[in-house]
Amino acid sequence: MKVLNILVLLILNFYFIKTDEEIFNQAMNDLEDLESYIKEYITEKSYTGSSLTHLIVCFIRLGAYSSSEWQIAGGEIPTDLVEYITSKDEENETSAKKVQSYREIITPNGDKIDFVHMFAVMNGIENGNSYSSGFAHLVGWGGDTEQLLVDIMKKSGDLDSLMELAKNNYFRIKGGFDENDLISDLDGPIILSNKNDNNNFADLMRNYYTNNDNSNRVTKFIQLTFPNLVNKINKESFRNELYNKYTNDLYIRILECKKGIRESGFLRCYLAGNTKSQYTEHQRAAVYVVSDYLFENYKIISETKTEEKQKDEEENLNALDNKEKDENKNEIDEVKEKTEKNTKKDNFVHNNDNYDKFLNIHFIYFICLFLIFEHFF
Question: What is the pTM of this model?
Answer without folding.
Answer: 0.77
